[in-house]
TrEMBL record, chains A, B, C, D:
Belongs to the shaker potassium channel beta subunit family. InterPro entries: K_chnl_volt-dep_bsu_KCNAB-rel, NAD(P)_OxRdtase_dom_sf, NADP_OxRdtase_dom. This is Aldo/keto reductase. The keyword NADP applies. The keyword Disulfide bond does not apply. Pfam families: Aldo_ket_red. It comes from the Bacteria. It comes from Chryseotalea sanaruensis. Residues 16-320 form the NADP-dependent oxidoreductase domain. Keywords: NADP, Oxidoreductase.
């Protein structure tokens, strides 16, 4: 396994990590979840990603139960949660979601209970909250660190401007600012990580824990011949993801890439993961495997990465033609 | 004339203002320049925009000479300059451009001499400078304010992230941050002002002095039937502007808008200016007229603005179909 | 016993103190450890030095067990630990060492458990960590103080530049900076304490808890006739210490000093300890005795120190000829 | 010419620059001085180094007179002075030297008069002053920047610890800290630039304007056969330089290097300059030529630098054997 610093922080996170979104407590049985985490840990993965909203809390319960059973040394792995959506659903009370102090504090406490842990290593603000001043959010996350309930805090799907504002507030009050951001990133979705965030790696030393490296499965090539039922993008409530990803131009790209990967002697998913690993501003690529074989296969991404020479990268660029424009001046 | 606060600052700038880019010292004779400025001033325009690079210093000389001759009270108008490009040309020495302390200080001194003025009201960093830490730039602009050589400082064509960084630095050292940004803004170019900067109006109270409200003339409708020689977009060195603006989709928009303006009973340029004035986050719309009649006509934009009801604005939106997406969450 | 302030702090530490490096949990039996600590405590030593890496955690367990058994009042002694190396060994995971927040927090918790204590008096960063920003380390140590888990924090084998940077960060965020540094210091190794750190005593009020006052035994004179097996410098993994210390020039110095000590009427080790005590910038001299008689003998260092008149010190300087040059200007 | 940023600042300084130490107003006639500066400027050198003590003020007078006569654009070059020694000599009053506010302010004013300039680009504290708190010095330099009398300030022959302290003070009071340091640096004197300062390039973005790249001529090879009268190192008052440099080990190194340079097809001085240019942490190498031919010859250093492959650098290291040890941990 390869380890990378989480942005400028000293925490070393495995370059591939394991997330339980859409799987734990939902798509897969707990026995499979156990097997997957064991394979991940045994192969050097040290970061397990989670969130309150994943399977409405059940994903954290399943993961916590496995961690307890395994008895791995607490200092050998990194666990995250994310707050914002609450446990979802229509009956949520106004105080049960968002980034105000009450929800962040209560959500953290609840996540720790579901995990059966004393502290989270990483805690994310799952979305920006226009109804809460960033000041209140930064203060709350800082206090959670001071209380020892979390070690590092970050954001997910925030804009560069919002991340900068969080750092500005942190500096103004001498607080600990956000360490990492969890954006979507893959061959079909590059704007934030390669464009908008470009300066943040230098100015605030932003780390990134990227999700959806396979574009919800589109980059496996499995939708090349149409959109079958029962696959991830068919899940209710994910229409927004589907609509952005399954556009015609992308389907054309994936077909060409699949052929290109074949010529390179690797599979389409391995090429897609390898390509993400190639980006030095990516701290870790979160895998969302639901099957043993799939997860084991994914570790070939490092070999794949080593074969992405500048020439090969340039050929990929010719197929993708979606590189974010550099700043005009 | 209508006056608006320059962002959160207390300085009131006329909602239409007058810029000398591409005209003073270059396209038009000094006599015309005098006439135009007089018409502008007599109609309540109080902001005259300039930059060191405009006609390589000559634009400032011409403007300064006119101001001197007219003898208008110094406290009745606002004058700007911008530094970054130096005087342009191939023989520039490395110390004669950029946003480091030496160039900003020397450029300010030189602009004051060309203008024959004791201080500038507004001083802009004409572009971001990747080779100078923003810290050095903020410190220098602050010191120029302290020395009484400039009154407010701002940026031009910076990203939201860079503007936030400038404010972060200003706050850290208790310095005066940038008050305004000068972005391109018009019906065809909306991303920065309506999208990227959206939060900045609230967080740092950003003012905007927008340039190219007519998209370099495209929004006058004069290119509707092709691209004649001798017009602004034919000027050598402005290919970048031309290439972004004269795309097919835009030409289609302008044709429809021209018809729409006619139905509304106003000309295309007046509709374009009125539409800019409608945006409350625009502090002032910089006009770049080179002819008397053109400038006088432009003042009708206020009447035009008053006729842009919510319904009309929505119809325009249906033609433009280029409204920047709000942040997804 | 004589007590000295730990740098500018108000904490009074005994001028001789007792460290368990290489002995507790390793070279000596727990019964001997108990005897040595009892002699130390009864003779007024109030500081017991330790680290996570000493005997891979066992040194802390042994010391903690003794402290518990003795029942000495907790406010009558000072206990330290140090984090950086983790528990050592080849199987360490990347998150189990270094000065990032996760390791410092977890290492502190683990040390407290091994010690069976509620808080450490002194907590050291055992080495600088180039992979973690000093900012993250300072914040974490500050927070541990706020949480009541440690009372003072310091560094060990850091450079003057790094210590200054820690203070700069502390000042910037209004945090508590490092109080003390634990450097090697003895007649043969003077550069850091007398040269590099010279200004730090004044500027930041640095305290020093010096280790190896006898240069790993070389200054006892026992290697004067060669390097016997089974002595400290023969321990595997300490080659770096041996190589720096056992150089020919040093052996010559020690032979002359041994004779000089004899003429003064004291033993070589007493002269060496007395000489360290003579330096006012040394807060405490950590003894590493493994035998009763040896420890008891060491207390004569105070008498010895009182006989080091300016003349005698000058004669020693003539033998050592290794006084760090003062800054050239 | 090649230009480099002065540390993290945005000011671009020529990689070779020209200093007047020991020459202007002293060893060489003013006509020669004029010729040398003209050659330098025409070849792209944009930094002229000076100090109050050089020829007791005469060096600045000569340089100022030449700059005036030439009429080069003020924004095309960078001029420095340094304060600390006053004008030297035995009759100096206590207020006429050092880094207290009175001398720094008066020395700056006097240097400007001797130069006939309105401001200095760079102003150095020529040595550390143990009799003045660094706080007073930092405040004074900051105020001189605010008053527009200097643009950047720095230090010369300060220790890493002192430079850090200056930055700490600057930060505490929100002042502008030192941008650059002027240390001695050459193949025979590497400790400060390669060892002691190693972290400062990263932490505070230190720029370096290095002096004595030829080790006072020793690296020209002209002393290979003994120490003739009438050469630089024979100058009265430079015994300290002579004593450090002309040691036997160095003479041996230079003899071997001279042969090595010959085999490489370049002269000894060119090799010595090229080797300095190779170090990326060197912002500029100050040349001290006193003859036309010598100065013109020096520009070959860039060609020479391009031939210093990693292999060649390693061979040089084998001859020098004086690379500063990296930090032990």
């Amino acid at each position: 396994m390869e380890y990378r610093r989480l942005g400028k922080s000293g925490l070393q996170v495995s370059a591939l990590s394991f997330g339980s979104w859409l799987t734990f407590g939902k798509q897969i049985e707990n026995g499979i979840a156990d097997e997957l985490m064991t394979i991940a840990y045994d192969n050097g993965i040290n970061f397990f990603d989670n969130a309150e909203i994943y399977a409405r809390g059940k994903s954290e319960e399943v993961m916590g139960e496995i961690l307890k059973k395994k008895g791995w040394s607490r200092d050998s792995y990194i666990v995250s949660s994310k707050a914002f959506f609450g446990l979802g659903g229509k009956d949520l009370k106004p105080t049960q979601k968002g980034l105000h102090r009450k929800h962040l504090v209560e959500a953290c406490e609840q996540a720790l209970k579901r995990f059966q842990l004393d502290y989270l290593d990483l805690y994310f603000c799952h979305r920006p909250d226009k109804q809460t001043p960033i000041e209140e959010t930064v203060w709350t996350m800082h206090n959670l660190i001071q209380q020892g309930k979390i070690l590092y805090w970050g954001t997910s799907e925030w804009s560069a401007q919002e991340i900068m504002e969080a750092h500005m507030v942190a500096q103004r009050y001498s607080l600990i600012g956000p360490t990492m951001e969890q954006p979507q990133y893959n061959m079909l979705e590059r704007n934030k990580v390669e464009g908008e965030f470009a300066q943040l790696y230098k100015t605030v030393g932003l780390g990134t824990t990227i999700w959806s490296p396979l574009a919800s499965g589109v980059l496996t090539g499995k939708y090349n011949d149409g959109f079958p039922e029962g696959t991830r993008l068919g899940i209710e409530g994910l229409d927004w993801l589907r609509d952005n990803t399954l556009v015609e131009a992308n389907m054309k790209r994936v077909k060409e890439l699949t052929k290109f990967a074949f010529d390179l002697g690797m599979t389409m998913p391995i090429l897609a993961l390898a390509w993400c690993l190639k980006n030095e501003n990516v701290s870790t690529v979160i895998l969302g495997a639901s099957k043993r074989a799939q997860l084991i296969e994914n570790f070939k991404a490092f070999e794949g990465r080593d074969r992405l020479t500048p020439q090969v990268m340039e050929q990929i660029e010719q197929i993708l033609k979606n590189k974010p424009a550099p700043p005009s001046f």
